[in-house]
Design goal:
Elements lengths: L2 H33 L8 H15 L3 H16 L5 H19 L2 H24 L3 H16 L6 H17 L3 H13 L11 H16 L2 H21 L8 H18 L3 H17 L4 H17 L3 H13 L31
Helix pairs in contact: 2-3, 3-4, 4-5, 5-6, 5-7, 6-7, 7-8, 9-10, 9-11, 10-11, 11-12, 11-13, 12-13, 13-14
């Protein structure tokens, strides 16, 4: 073997060993660079206005400081990236400035604005699939708003609904259930509660739970809503609680849906019987009876219960024809439903 041939073999071996290593290191380096958070470039006008406001606040020139902070907010609104963080920084300074100047109303409003910014930032994280970061921001937002001197109920709800959603997506089911429990525990019942505000709240919670796919939770909330409606109707006269018969029918229908979505078909069919009988007894809307019957028929077909299927088909046939089988804005008998998608199913047992 010639010396030239030996050198060629050595070179080939070196290429086989070191070129893959070099490519691997190159790819790793590119990935590390990509994962390094990019520093958001701030508008220098924003930075200047913010720093001027801080200086004026330290000199106790509060009115002038507020003007500079408002100027900083304006420039923050023009930023392409990091807008929420910039706003939050300014508003935090407004809180300290307002507190120092004794303007409690402005300080409280600024604290609410921080909460709104945190919720907005959390929604951005959630929509990007960063559920851990989103949940932390929603949780912080909830804690901040409930600690206000006069908590804003609507703002508390704005923080809790996406918080429950993020926790559910993370598989933190008990934490999500705790959020729903806080929603219910905050309900203030008036002396004359003929509208059953707690029952209405459980219906609202059931709707939220159905939207995130928590059908076990929706089942429990519907059951609580039904109990509350029945308790209210037994405590007040029939005339005062007439509207609750519809609410109870709706809750019973939703309970049937919750069972069906969990594939608890026997329970769904039992709930359907109770819902249909009650809605008939109180002369409830035909549309609810049709929904109850259609779902029950589907549950009987899926669970292959021929006798039950026949009974529900008879009930469905006995109802007046659906005036709106295909919703259309041109059909005067129809109310075109809002556009929406079916809520996702859950694998939770």
């Amino acid at each position: 073997m010639t010396r030239k041939r030996i050198l060629e073999i050595i070179l080939a071996v070196l290429c086989i060993v070191f070129i893959p290593l070099a490519l691997l290191n190159y790819a790793r380096g590119k990935l590390e660079v990509a994962n390094v958070p990019r520093r958001v470039e701030r508008d220098p006008r924003f930075v200047a206005a913010l720093q001027a406001g801080i200086a004026l606040e330290q000199q106790q020139q509060y009115d002038a400081a507020f003007n500079k902070y408002m100027e900083a907010e304006f420039f923050a609104s023009k930023m392409a990236q990091g807008k929420n963080d910039a706003f939050k920084e300014v508003v935090e300074h407004i809180v300290t400035c307002a507190s120092a100047s004794g303007d409690s109303e402005r300080a409280n409003n600024a604290r609410k604005q921080i909460v709104r910014l945190m919720i907005s930032s959390g929604i951005e994280d959630r929509d990007a699939g960063h559920f851990e970061e989103a949940a932390a921001k929603f949780q912080d937002a909830e804690q901040r708003v409930v600690s206000l001197d006069s908590p804003d109920a609507a703002l508390v709800q704005d923080a809790r609904v996406p918080l429950a959603d993020a926790l559910w997506k993370l598989g933190r089911f008990s934490d999500a259930e705790a959020v729903f429990a806080r929603m219910a525990s905050d309900v203030s019942q008036p002396m004359n509660d003929s509208r059953s505000v707690l029952g209405q709240k459980y219906m609202e919670i059931a709707r939220i739970q159905s939207e995130i796919g928590d059908w076990a939770g929706a089942q429990a909330s519907c059951q609580r809503a039904i109990q509350e409606f029945e308790r209210t109707m037994s405590s007040y006269g029939q005339q005062e609680t007439a509207s609750l018969t519809f609410e109870k029918s709706l809750a019973m229908n939703w309970l049937e849906v919750a069972y069906a979505r969990q594939k608890k078909y026997d329970l769904a069919l039992s709930a359907a019987d109770q819902a249909y009988d009650y809605t008939t007894q109180v002369n409830g809307p035909t549309e609810i009876k049709r929904q109850i019957a259609e779902l029950a028929l589907s549950a009987a077909q899926t669970s292959q219960q021929a006798a039950v299927q026949g009974r529900w088909q008879e009930r469905l046939n006995a109802l007046p024809a659906n005036p709106c089988p295909a919703p259309s804005i041109n059909n005067p008998n129809c109310v075109t439903p809002a556009v929406g998608s079916n809520p996702p199913t859950s694998n939770r047992q």
